[in-house]
């Protein structure tokens, strides 16, 4: 049984995200929602019930402040009464995510219980104000998330989105950050990102490097069989919410052949948004560039593989 934790500060859009996920992707699953509102009257629970969902509300206090034994009993009751395949927990907007996770993991009475999503929703419009005024609660949520979902990015400038993503990355270097507006992104993709702790693009880098290692060992056996491609090949990668101009992208890719300035680049790949064009995937190898349209993704991603890479110059080329 999966347990999804969808957290976030007050008013960030947690309930809206849950509704989107269920409507578009999880509607065939048997789901129970544990709704933990801050206040005496539960509003979000009523909204979720309109989707014909089973909702268990905790309004007397925060999950993270509830005695673990009581929380265990609540989970046992849910399993006995509904036997769901998935439980979605929406903690109070003032909960510390680290304590919520600890409470969930302390429930060891259910067989095959799996903490699945650890999502934090962040309202980009109020990011600065909240991190300044509510630092401890806010940074705790960011630091303990596996996936950060930015809300209201359609109302923000590219500079705002980039700033927020960089600030989040300083607090949590390992999380995935979803920057694409929700109406342009499928729930399926959000779940794929949330349920995979390692980036697809990093997996590809490892596969490419493994391939390069094998090739290089074969070619170099007569000279130095102990030397692997990892001693020669290097990688640079980045996530970015930047929206590229089509003509600028072509110039960037053309410039990758400048070995003196950027190093010897043998492969480059990316998934990015292009203004007025939508999302594209580009592939670069020396003497060949391919750009093709794809469906919207959660944020832009870039990967460059080569030898003696000048990473700061490459970063400047792509990101300015």
Provide a compact summary of the structure.
Belongs to the SIMIBI class G3E GTPase family. ZNG1 subfamily. The protein is an alpha/beta fold and 320 residues long. It has helices spanning 14-26, 44-49, 68-82, 97-105, 127-133, 135-143, 158-171, 187-195, 200-224, 246-255, 259-262, 311-319; strands at 2-8, 31-35, 54-57, 86-90, 114-123, 147-151, 176-178, 233-240, 243-244, 264-274, 278-285, 288-293, 300-307.
The run of helices and strands is EHEHEHEHEHHEHEHHEEHHEEEEH
* Termini gap: 45 Å
Tally of individual helices: 12
Fraction in helix: 40-55%
Number of strands: 13
Q: Strand order across the biggest sheet?
A: 3-2-4-1-5-6-7
Stretches with pLDDT under 50, minimum 5 residues: 38-45, 60-67, 211-230
CATH architecture grouping of the largest domain: 3-Layer(aba) Sandwich
Averaged pLDDT: 81
Summary tags:
Rossmann fold, alpha/beta, 2 domains, 6-stranded mixed β-sheet, about 40% helix, about 325 residues, Hypothetical Protein Yjia, Chain: A,domain 2, 7-stranded parallel β-sheet
What are the SSEs and their pairings?
Blueprint: E1 2-8, H1 14-26, E2 31-35, H2 44-49, E3 54-57, H3 68-82, E4 86-90, H4 97-105, E5 114-123, H5 127-133, H6 135-143, E6 147-151, H7 158-171, E7 176-178, H8 187-195, H9 200-224, E8 233-240, E9 243-244, H10 246-255, H11 259-262, E10 264-274, E11 278-285, E12 288-293, E13 300-307, H12 311-319
Parallel strand pairs: 1-4, 1-5, 2-3, 2-4, 5-6, 6-7, 9-10
Antiparallel strand pairs: 8-13, 10-11, 10-13, 11-12
Helix pairs in contact: 1-8, 5-6
